[in-house]
Amino acid sequence: xxxxxxxxxxxxxxxxxxxxMATLDVFVVNVAFTDIGRSYSASSLSDLSWVLNAYTIAxxxxxxxxxxxxxxxxxxxxFLLGLTVFTLASVACAAAPSLWWLVAFRVLQAAGAxxxxxxxxxxxxxxxxxxxxxxxxxxxxxxSSFAAAVGPVVGGALLQVSWQWIFLINLPVGILAFxxxxxxxxxxxxxTVTRTPDLLGVGVFAVAIGALALGLVKDGAWIAFVVxxxxxxxxxxxxxxxxVPVVDPAxxxxxxxxxxxxxxxxxxxxxxxxFPSVVLWLENVAGFSTLATGFAIVPGPLMVxxxxxxxxxLSRAIPVRVVTAVGNLxxxxxxxxxxxxxxxxxxxxxxxLPGWMIIGVGIGLALPNIIAAATAALPAAQxxxxxxxxxxxxxxxxxxxxxxxxxxxxxxxxxxxxxxxAFQHGWWFIALTAALSAxxxxxxxxxxxx
Length: 450
What we know:
Layout: H1 2-39, H2 45-73, H3 75-94, H4 99-127, H5 130-158, H6 165-168, H7 170-184, H8 199-217, H9 222-241, H10 255-284, H11 290-297, H12 299-314, H13 320-341, H14 348-376, H15 383-409, H16 416-441
Helix pairs in contact: 1-2, 1-4, 1-5, 1-7, 1-10, 2-3, 2-4, 2-8, 2-15, 3-4, 3-7, 4-5, 4-15, 5-11, 5-12, 5-14, 8-9, 8-15, 10-11, 10-14, 10-15, 10-16, 12-14, 13-14, 13-16, 15-16
């Protein structure tokens, strides 16, 4: 019995390590944004935003088909393949000779992450006993939150050498995770999936989301919005009519699943915008170095795993929808505090830290419960696909959050009074989106807590 428990904990550790690596990369890149821009000095802020957006768009587009393919051909094989692609693409990112080569390699990274993320969660659910699954899902979510806490410091330290090291750090972690998964994690698949999902629908979806992000960051790109609208309509039609749609329409008839995805989308719009907004504020207005910014960012993400544990205890006595809504309202309140206390004379302890820590508390209460709510109501056979859908919603939120923030900020190399007004507008937008996410969180049902 003891050996089974040790093996279960080891499996959780190995699978969460991979999720940790993929999430760590996102937050490290946020801190490195300014340094990457200096290396490619001819690039505008909107061009640089594609270092983030190319990753999240490809990730969002490929998550669901990767989950479906893993359900059919084997989740362990999908996980190991994704881990390999992600690790090798990270090395390629470090060697990128230009900005657009870096963007291309980030797309490859995203393809690997899209394969390993849903399969890591699905393998977690199928490898463990039923009574262990809910706790393991929250550990998986908290691990990602912990990556957000250490990512800025790791990024700031690595940037003292070179921004290329933020990608090279994935090589040893990827090798260790691959060896552990190959030896310890049992395989699983959904025997009812016998056909390849709608790959054309995947392409249509990726083009639509890419066009929407382009329209948000480029002035006058109205044709991009037209392409996005037509693409999303075509994607919805293919979901309904294709014999093997990317998203099973049956999933969309589970109310908790639908509300969790809407909440995840809105929450991650705010989440995706708030991190780069604070990083850019500290580095470009306050004049912090990358290392100082990394340490300044830590207190907010550090609140996330702490209050994720608090939220888990609260959800035993209080409905999940209430805990999640309160977390989102705190997130909104923290953004409001950033906006109203901001000044061209940046005083970090008084004008940045309080709001930033409140945001971290709110994220800790909300994020694990949103993820758990999305997967708790689904049968095990649809675990990979369902987790892929909610992670797609999250990634779409990040894309829109970054794109809208870039559109609000415009150029950041402007006088501080103009920069102040732009950042305040960004934080008010973040506050409003988090408040909307609090409202949609009330659709999560009590069944999730049980």
